[in-house]
Specification:
This is tRNA U34 carboxymethyltransferase. It is a single chain. Helices cover 28% and strands 24% of the residues. It is of the alpha/beta class. It has a single domain, classed as Vaccinia Virus protein VP39 (Rossmann fold, 3-Layer(aba) Sandwich). The strands form five sheets. The protein has a seven-stranded mixed beta sheet, with helices on both faces. Strands 1-2-4-5 form a four-stranded mixed beta sheet, covered by helices on one side. It has a two-stranded parallel sheet with strand order 3-6. Helix 6 links the parallel strand 7 and strand 8. It is globular, with a radius of gyration of 20 Å.
Length: 323
């Protein structure tokens, strides 16, 4: 079973200490009542991975680890076999001792778009909501974060994170918890909160923005990355049953409408930092994610539209401050 005692110890004496009033009971309930049917299989893969201490570790420009002397072909084959039992790998990529996990998303490209527009992360305590495999947590650590906490209820992603952590030397500066944002109390303890690729999955997007705000310290920064549509401050797309084959997409505002939403929730210094179209090079099928991806979700004759006829995915990065 994945243990969270190291995380509890790490937050026991800092601004997150009051989280310990509720968090251990939530985790215990999850362990007793909510384990996925494949969790034991996934966790066994993590258990069978060797605990490695890389001679060279780069979290600043990538998530990559290497030894001075290469691992043997047999060691590499065993590690790759375990990692492949944790497919599909969606957020990455990771380069681990010569094993290149070519994930569905080029999350490094997203990071390159986001990083120039945000406050420096050095020394900060950070929350990443919907963190997936934790790729961006490692990049946050690479930027000098004091502590990077990710939450994501998908248990496969937790096991992927723990697998990578084990291969990176057991680094304790990043942690993933199997929770959704609605399970967090109002912590008001994070210097920066990231919500990337989450907002359009929320039935009540303004409630989500308030939940994010409640996790920030005064003058803390929200980094919001999400789907948007073209248009003015009044433009919001409400898709039908599916958007780009995703069922749980509720509201896709224009960037200007989203700026208004943030201001309505009490954020200040709201800035539309970046807007760009998602390409089929950034999100695609790979040897580590073999099911359908963006190319199959777009109109084959017109890539400016989804298969349902909606505008193709356009993504924006906004930053805002809690007053």
């Amino acid at each position: 079973m994945i243990e969270f005692g190291d995380f509890y110890q790490r937050i026991a004496k800092g601004p997150l200490s009051h989280w310990l009033d509720t968090l251990p009971a939530q985790i215990s309930a999850w362990q007793r009542e909510s384990l996925h049917g494949k969790f034991k299989q996934w966790f066994n893969s993590v258990e069978h991975l060797p605990a490695l201490a890389p001679a060279r570790l780069d979290l600043r420009h990538s998530v990559s680890a290497a030894m001075n002397e290469p691992l043997s072909p047999g060691q590499l084959e065993g590690i790759e076999k375990m990692l492949r039992t944790l497919m599909p790998w969606r957020k990455g990529p990771f380069s681990l001792y010569g094993i290149n996990i070519d994930t569905e998303w080029h999350s490094d490209w997203k990071w390159d778009r986001v990083l120039p527009h945000i406050s420096p992360l050095a020394g900060r305590t950070i929350l990443d909501v919907g963190c997936g495999s934790g790729y961006h947590l490692w990049r946050m650590v690479g930027e000098g974060a004091h502590l990077a906490v990710g939450i994501d209820p998908m248990q496969l992603f937790l096991c992927q994170f723990e697998a990578v952590r084990k291969l990176l030397g057991g680094d304790q500066r990043a942690h993933v918890l199997p929770l959704g944002i609605e399970q967090l109390p109002e912590l008001a303890a994070f210097d920066t909160v990231f919500s990337m690729g989450v907002l359009y999955h929320r039935r009540s997007p303004l409630d989500h923005l308030y939940q994010l705000k409640n996790q920030l310290v005064t003058e803390g920064e929200l980094v919001l990355e999400t789907l948007v549509v073209a248009g003015d401050r009044h433009q919001v797309l409400v898709p039908g049953d599916r958007y780009a084959q995703m069922r749980n997409v509720y509201f896709i505002p224009s960037a200007e409408a989203l700026k208004c939403w943030l201001e309505k929730c009490g954020f200040i210094d709201v800035n539309i930092a970046d807007i760009g179209t998602t390409s089929i090079e950034e999100q695609r099928r790979t040897g580590w994610m073999t099911s359908e991806s963006l190319a199959e979700f777009l109109d084959p004759d017109d890539h400016t539209k989804t298969v349902e006829g909606y505008p193709a995915p356009l993504r924006a990065v906004l930053t805002a401050k809690k007053p």
